[in-house]
């Protein structure tokens, strides 16, 4: 199994069979500018400003500075929020391991093309729809189905983007990319931009809409009255009409609202709180209790070995470290617990070929005979070890009636309440109360 070659990848990408890249979760630059500039309130003020500019009444145009300041406050705030959110999105974009030219290569999810062979193991996110071509997996599809039960996947089984691997290892060929992916098709069906609900914003829009029905006919009447009844010149007619109309547009109130909200956003920013839309502050003001789900979004889920607590004589035996190293070297598991143990014990993580016993690991005293992969459903895994011939502990096995070449034992790794059942030693029960995970 070699996967695609570089030329095949480029050929598929040229045919449009590559990922189009992650869609931005924020508004586009054009949308931010359009929403802050192209409003009815701004249109009325700019129309009056243009008329004043046309007759040369520049000193009467100072009011436009208030409008521009109001626009700038909104645009700057949303641009700053967009930049931070986009940076976080890039930081959290998943990576994938694929076979390219016969080698396992780590790439960004956006570089996947159709027919790529993904290498999936425990903890990996499935970025694209695929079909398993070799291996076995336990997959969590709770994001798609709402069910937390793990699903077994073997050769020929379909994998859906948005799911994740719990345990096992397999090779899967990508069948869909871009919007054809199952997850993307669901997102596109329900994707819609949610309008900000703000009493302040809604009230201002009502005032502006009501004013717009009056301001145009009233402006025409005032201009006609000045030109034909008072016999004023064009300059005086435009200036007097503009002065009357500007009083109907609550520029000061709009600026006051923007400045007040901007002040609140600045105070929240000092507390490291990101506000994407300036009017969201008003929504937050109505909140009494805020509930957050931080697991996996604000945390990375990595673990480390804190301490090792031997339980009983077997746990304190000199060969316990060697047994654990042999377990880690023979295991194909790749969850966060195994990764932490490998980092601590210095295991190289090498695995045996399928159906073949692993080579002696650690100090060469033990070799794996049979493997039961770790499963999050049963919460344990196990490997039967054979003591290698000439091992240092051969005399002890010989005294027990076994030869050094055939002495066997099984190492279990997992939750102690599952491995030991209800017969937990008092020391183990006390440590579990402290939140420690034990190795039996």
Mean pLDDT: 76
- Number of domain units: 3
Task: Flag low-confidence runs.
Answer: 349-361, 391-405, 436-440
Give the fraction of residues assigned to helices: 40-55%
Distance between the termini: 38 Å
Radius of gyration, Cα only, in angstroms?
34 Å
What fraction strand? 15-25%
**Overall strand count:** 10
Number of helices: 16
Let me know the largest β-sheet: 7 strands, antiparallel
Structural class: alpha+beta
The ordered H/E elements are HHHHEEEEHEEEHHHHHHHHEEHEHH
**3D shape:** elongated
Describe the structure.
This protein folds into three domains: 158 residues, no CATH class; 89 residues, Distorted Sandwich (Calcium-transporting ATPase, cytoplasmic transduction domain A); 122 residues. It is of the alpha+beta class and 440 residues long. The protein contains 16 helices and ten strands. The two termini are 38 Å apart. It is elongated and about 115 Å long. The strands form two sheets. Strands 1, 2, 3, 4, 5, 6 and 7 form a seven-stranded antiparallel beta sheet that branches.
């Amino acid at each position: 199994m070699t996967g695609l070659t570089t030329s095949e990848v480029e050929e598929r990408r040229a045919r449009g069979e590559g990922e189009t890249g992650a869609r931005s979760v924020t508004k586009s630059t054009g949308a931010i500018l359009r929403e802050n500039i192209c409003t009815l309130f701004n249109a009325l003020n700019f129309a009056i400003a243009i008329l004043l500019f046309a007759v040369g009444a520049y000193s009467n145009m100072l009011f436009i500075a208030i409008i521009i300041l109001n626009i700038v406050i909104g645009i700057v705030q949303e641009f700053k929020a967009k930049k931070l959110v986009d940076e976080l999105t890039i930081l959290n974009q998943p990576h994938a391991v694929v076979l390219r030219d016969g080698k396992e290569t780590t790439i960004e999810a956006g570089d996947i093309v159709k027919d790529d062979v993904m290498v999936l193991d425990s903890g990996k996110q499935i970025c694209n729809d695929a079909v398993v071509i070799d291996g076995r997996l336990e997959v969590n599809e709770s994001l798609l189905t709402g069910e937390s039960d793990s699903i077994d996947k073997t050769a020929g089984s379909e994998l859906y983007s948005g799911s994740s691997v719990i345990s096992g290892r397999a090779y899967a060929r990508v069948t869909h990319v871009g919007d054809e992916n199952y997850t993307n098709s669901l997102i596109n069906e329900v994707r819609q931009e949610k309008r900000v609900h703000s009493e302040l914003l809604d009230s201002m829009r009502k005032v502006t809409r009501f004013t717009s029905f009056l301001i145009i006919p009233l402006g025409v009447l005032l201009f006609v009255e000045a030109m034909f009844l008072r016999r004023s010149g064009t300059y005086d007619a435009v200036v007097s009409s503009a002065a009357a109309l500007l009083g109907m547009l609550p520029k000061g109130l709009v600026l006051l609202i923007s400045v007040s909200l901007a002040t609140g956003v600045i105070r929240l920013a000092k507390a490291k709180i990101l506000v994407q839309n300036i009017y969201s502050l008003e929504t937050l003001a109505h909140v009494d209790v805020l509930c957050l789900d931080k697991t996996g979004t604000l945390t990375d889920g990595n673990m480390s070995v804190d301490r090792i607590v031997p339980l009983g004589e077997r746990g304190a035996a000199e060969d316990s470290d060697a047994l654990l190293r042999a377990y880690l070297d023979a295991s194909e598991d790749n969850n966060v617990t195994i990764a932490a143990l490998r980092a601590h014990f210095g295991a190289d993580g090498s695995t045996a070929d399928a159906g073949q016993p692993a080579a002696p690991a650690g100090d060469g005293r033990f070799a794996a005979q049979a493997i039961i992969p770790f499963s999050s459903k049963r919460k344990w895994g196990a490997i039967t070890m054979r003591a290698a011939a000439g091992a240092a502990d051969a005399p002890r096995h010989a005294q027990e009636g076994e030869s050094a070449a055939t002495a066997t034992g099984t190492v279990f790794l997992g939750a102690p309440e599952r491995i030991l059942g209800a017969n937990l030693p008092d020391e183990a029960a006390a440590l579990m109360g402290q939140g420690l995970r034990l190795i039996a």
